[in-house]
User: Fold these one by one.
Assistant:
Number 1:
Amino acid sequence: MATLETSSSSTLKLPDALPLDSGQTLENVEIAYETYGEMAADKSNIVLIFHALTMDQYVASPHPITGKPGWWSESVGPGKTIDTDRFHVICANVIGGCMGSTGPSSLDGEGQPYAMRFPVITIRDMVRAQVALLDHLGIGTLHAVIGGSMGGMLALSLAANYPERAARVIGIATTARHSAQNIAFHEVGRQAIMADPNWRKGEYYADGISPDAGLAVARMAAHITYLSEAGLTEKFGRRLQDRKAISFGFDADFQIESYLRHQGISFTSRFDANSYLYITRAMDYFDLAEEHGGRLADAFAGASARFCLISFDTDWLYPTAETRNVVHALNAAAAPVSFVELSAPYGHDSFLLDVPALDSVIKGFLE
Amino acid sequence: MATLETSSSSTLKLPDALPLDSGQTLENVEIAYETYGEMAADKSNIVLIFHALTMDQYVASPHPITGKPGWWSESVGPGKTIDTDRFHVICANVIGGCMGSTGPSSLDGEGQPYAMRFPVITIRDMVRAQVALLDHLGIGTLHAVIGGSMGGMLALSLAANYPERAARVIGIATTARHSAQNIAFHEVGRQAIMADPNWRKGEYYADGISPDAGLAVARMAAHITYLSEAGLTEKFGRRLQDRKAISFGFDADFQIESYLRHQGISFTSRFDANSYLYITRAMDYFDLAEEHGGRLADAFAGASARFCLISFDTDWLYPTAETRNVVHALNAAAAPVSFVELSAPYGHDSFLLDVPALDSVIKGFLE
C-alpha cells in the first residue's frame, strides 16, 4: 500500500436514468466525489463515507468555497483513524445537494435550473445514486460504509437495501426514522426559507438574489439542535459579546447571539436554499421500518454485514434511544452489532468534533 | 364573600412616568387588566397572576380576538383551584405587550406608534408597572402572586424587588435566568421577524401590512420548545395529515407540520411582532442573580413570603435544574419554600394543560 496521500476530485455522469422512490426518474445524473488513498488491486480496501445534511464530499480536503479543512480531516488521512495509507476512501455529494452532484440548482434537459421542478427524493434515492457510482467503479463489497447523522441514515439504508455491498456498517449519532420533533425543526427551517420573498418559489437562480435571510434563520434554528444545552452553557453561558453591559437594544449583546448570527450568514455562502428544502424533506421522509413493511428488524433481514452503532449521551436530536431502537432491530435480525453510547459534552455535533473515544471505536471496528 | 362570578376589564393610566432599568422613563403608561371575584373589604384576598410571553390578561375570560376561553380558565373561576368565590384575582397585560398595556404598538406623545422607539424593557420593569397598579388600587400585600414560565420570572422578580408585596409566591415551570439555549431560540425568532421585509425596522403599523410570515416562523420555532419530544411523538408521531401516503412534495404531509403551520399563522392574528421582539428581549436579559450582585440567594435576602416552586419532568425549556437553582437560593436565604417536580408528558406547556397534581399543589399552597 502506498503511503503517499492522494486526493482527487471526480464527477461521474451516470450512464442510465436513476429510478426514484417517487416513481419518477432522474436523467443525466452527475455524482461529484472525492477519493483519498490508493485503491488496492483487489478493491478490498474501500471505505465509503456518507456526509451529513449540510456537509459534502470534501471530507478531508479543503472546501473549495470556504477554504476550510475537510469536515472530517481530523479523522481521515494518512495514519489517522480512517487511515488513507491503508484505505481508499470515497465520499460523494448526495443527489439533491449543491456541491456538484445533481440537485435543484443543476440544469435540466432544457438547460434551465431545476429549482422546484427537481423531483422530491429520499434517503434511499441518495443511496441508489451512490451504488450506481460503486457499480461504475467496479466496486462490489465495501470494506466499510460510515456515516454520521444523515450519513448514518444512508449507511443504514445501504445496509438494508444493498446488504451485499458493505462488510462493515458504522452509524454515528443517527436514527432509523425522523421523529415528530425532528420533522418539526426541519419544517421551521423550510418555512423560514419559503417565507423569504427572495425565494420566489425556488426560481432565484437567474439573478443570483437568493433567499439568504430565510436560509440563515433555518440554519440558526437547526444549529441549536446540534448543540447540547450544557455545551451551550459552557461555551457561551450568558457572556456578553465585546461589551461590559447589556445594550438595552437588539444588537447581539450575548455571545450566543453573535455566534448564531454568524453561523446563519456564513452558511448561505456555501449552501443552496432549495437543496436545504430537498435534503431536509428526504430526511423527514426517512423511516426504514415503514419502508420494509413496518418492522425495523425486517429491514435488516438480509444483512450480512457487521454493524457498529455509536450514540452520544448529550445528543438530543438523535438521542441514544433512537440508536438503541436500531440495535434491537439488528439483534432481532441476528446481525452482529456493536453498540456504544459515548460521553461527550457537545450534543449531536460530537460526531464532528474531537472525541477520542469515537476514533478508537471506529479504528477498532475497521480492523 | 360573594359567590357571584364577576369579571371586569379595566385600563389604568399611571399618574407618574415609569422609571425603567435602562435609565429611560416611560410616560403615560397604561395598564390593561382583568379582575375576577370580589375584593374583600380588607383587601386580604387578592391573587395576582402574571402571564407568560404570548399570553395576556384574559386569564379566565374569553379572548377578545380569538373568542377562545381564557388561557387558565380551567383553574381560575368559582369553585376552581384559584377560587374566585374566595379570591379577588387580578391579571394585567405586561408593558411591552399588545393587548392594551403600553407597548411598541401604542402611540407615543406625538400620536405615532412607538414601534422600535419603544424603550427596551426588563422583567423588573414589567413588575414595576404592575406594582404601580397595586399602589393605585390601594393593595399592600397580596395573598399570593402566581406565574408560569415568564410569569414565574415576574413572580420571582416581585419577590426579590418588592418582598413586602406578596405573602405567597408561586413559580411554575420557570427560571431565575435565561440560559444560552433559551436566548438562542429567542434570537432565532427575532431574526425571523427582522428578516421579513414587511417588518421594515418595526414601522409597519401605518399600512397594517405586518411581518406575519416572520412572526409565524418565530412562533413555530418557539412552539417546539414548549412541547416534549415524547409528547410530540405521542400526539403526532409520523402520522400523515389527511392522506394515506407521503406526497413527494412540500405540502404539510405530516400532522406535526400542519399543526405547526397552524400555530404559526393563527398566532399572527392576535400578537404584535414588535411586542414579540421586546418581550423576548426582556426574558433574555433576565438574570435575577446578576441583578443582585451575582449571588441568587442575595436576591431573596429580604424575602418574607412563603415560596412554592413547581417544575415538570419533561420541560426542557426551563428544566427542573433551573427550579432547583432557585430553591437552593431560597434555602440559602432561609426563606420557606416548597418544591415539587411534577410528572407530566406535555413538556413546558404542562403549566397550561390539565395536570391535576398541579392544581392540588396550588390549591393547598393558597390555603
Number 2:
Amino acid sequence: MTQFENNNFGDVLLNRHSVRHFDKDVKIPREELREMIKETITAPSACNLQAWQFIVVDTDEGKKKLHEFYMPFNNPQIDTSSAIIQIFGNTLAFKKYRALWDHMYEEKRISKEELDKVYNTFLPLYEHADKTMLTADAMVDSSLAAMQLMLVARAHGYETNAMAGYDAKKAASVMGLDPEQYVPVMGIAIGKPDASAEELKSVRYPVDDVLKFE
Amino acid sequence: MTQFENNNFGDVLLNRHSVRHFDKDVKIPREELREMIKETITAPSACNLQAWQFIVVDTDEGKKKLHEFYMPFNNPQIDTSSAIIQIFGNTLAFKKYRALWDHMYEEKRISKEELDKVYNTFLPLYEHADKTMLTADAMVDSSLAAMQLMLVARAHGYETNAMAGYDAKKAASVMGLDPEQYVPVMGIAIGKPDASAEELKSVRYPVDDVLKFE
C-alpha cells in the first residue's frame, strides 16, 4: 500500500481547509500526480460507472486555457498552484460498461448469471436515460472522486482549493473535450501553501441545522 | 479531536468497499451518528453554501418510507443496515447565506470589505441562478459530503453502501421535505458487515483511461 506522508485520518479529514495562495516554486512530479488520481478513483460510483475524467494542468499553456473559462477570483489559485486537476463528468460512461463487466466475467470474478443481471437490470437504465439523469449521475460520481482527491492530496503533504466559478459552457471545448459528452464539475488546485499568505478559515452551520432523524 | 477507531488514512480510503449485507443486530447510537455527520460537514462546498441536508433513518417506520421510493435491489442494504443516511441537496441554501456571513463579520473573522465582497460578488450569482444551476451545485456539495461520510463511517469501524437507485420524484415528499427545494442525491447504508455474506469486489478502469495531462 502507498506510504502516505500524513497517514493520520483525523488530521487529514478534520484539518483540511481551502488554500488559495500556494508556493510557486513547488513542482509536483507527474508520476506523483498520476498516483494521486489512482488513489482517488477507488471512490465508489453509481453502478460502478466511474463517470469521471481528469485533466491535470501543470504547464503555463494549460493554465492559460483555464483562464479562458474561470472567473478572475480564481486567478490566485490557478497562478500559484503546482497543478490544477480539472474534473469532468463523462455522460456516456455507460458505453464502456459492457467491456468492464465482460472483463470481470472473463476473469471469473462474476458468474454468467451476475453478468446477465447487469446487462438486463442496470445497463438499460442508462441506455434509456435522458441527458438530465446522465449529467446528474456523472456529476455525483465526479464529486465523490473530487472529495477523495482533496483528502489524498493532503495525505501526500499538499493542500487544495476546490474551484467552482467558471463558464460551464466553455470548459470542455477549451480543454479539448466534446462538450456534448463531458460536463465540468470542478477544478482542484493543489500545491504547498504559501506560508506568508493569510487564509480565511470558513465556518459551518451547526450540525442540527442540517440533520433530522426518522 | 475525535478518537477514531481506525485512524489509518490509507486503510480507510484504499480498503473501503461497498457492503450490501449487514449484521442486523448492530445498533449505532444516535449520538455517534450525529457525531459522524458533524465530521462529515467539514467537507468544502461551493462558496461555503453547505447545500446539504441529512435524514438519518434508523427506525422501522423510517425504513418503510425508504421502500416507497427505492428500487428493490436496495432492499438488502435497507433492511439489514443499522441506519441509512438519506442525503438531499438544498437548492435554496443561499437564503441562509447572509446570516452565516453576517455572523462571521460580527465575530470579527472577516472585515467589512470582505463582507461586502460576498454580498456583491457571490450572493448575486445564486440569487439570479436558474433551477438547473442551483440543483447541480446542491448535488455537488452533497456528494462531497457523502464521500466524507463513507470514509468517516469506516474510521468509526463501520462499512457503507451508497445507494443510487430510487424514484427521484418521490424521495423528498415521502421524507417530509419540499420537493421543490430538496433534490435527492443518494442514500448511505451504514453498519457492521454480515461476516457470512460474500461481497462482490468491484474493479476500476486503468487510471490512464480517465487521465490526461495538459
